[in-house]
Amino acid sequence: MAEEKIACKDEVAVRAVLLFVPVGLTTRLLGIWIPKPLAVAVSMLGWMLAIYWLPTRTDLSLRRWLIVVSVSTILSFLLAVFEPDMF
What we know:
It is a single chain. The chain has about 90 residues and is mainly alpha-helical. It has four helices and no strands. It starts with a helix and ends in a 5-residue tail after the last helix. About 15% of the residues are buried.
């Protein structure tokens, strides 16, 4: 049972790492029309919500995933505000 939970957490971590490419691309595309910090936050929010419903769903509850998404979105927005050249 414990090994299954560890595998599930690893799966979520792999999914989150795989988001770097699409988030970067959509951030640059959205950055044409909206301010860069907002583009980063919108891109992060959209891709993190979309990745939850991939065909191999994780055992992580939607409530916990929404907390992870919210914290990640806020942190990415703040990072984009204070380090605008990063994205």
